[in-house]
Amino acid sequence: MKQKEIKKPSGTVEKQKAPAAGVTGFAFGKQNYKLLLIGLVLILVGFLLMIGGGSDDPNVFSDKIFNFRRLTLAPILVLAGYVVEIFAIMKKPKE
User: Fold this and answer.
1) Residue 18 lies in a domain
2) Structure pTM?
3) N or C: which terminus of the chain has fewer CB atoms within 10 Å of its end residue's CB?
């Protein structure tokens, strides 16, 4: 990195590091990407748990669609996945 000299009114010179031209970093760090992946997996598992429960015969009603897994567990996992995704996006990466 280049150092930039700044002259103060008092006559002293202060050296300050200036950012190198053209050097940019990634918006997310390694931990952010891990959290994004974990959130995505939680969302996928939640939606997979919601699958099924229907009846093969359209004239017969099936109570399987009202079980704990589909009504409670799966939506909680989906919401938890979205919370993890938001946290992963908002978390500041370590420099």
Assistant:
1) no
2) 0.69
3) C
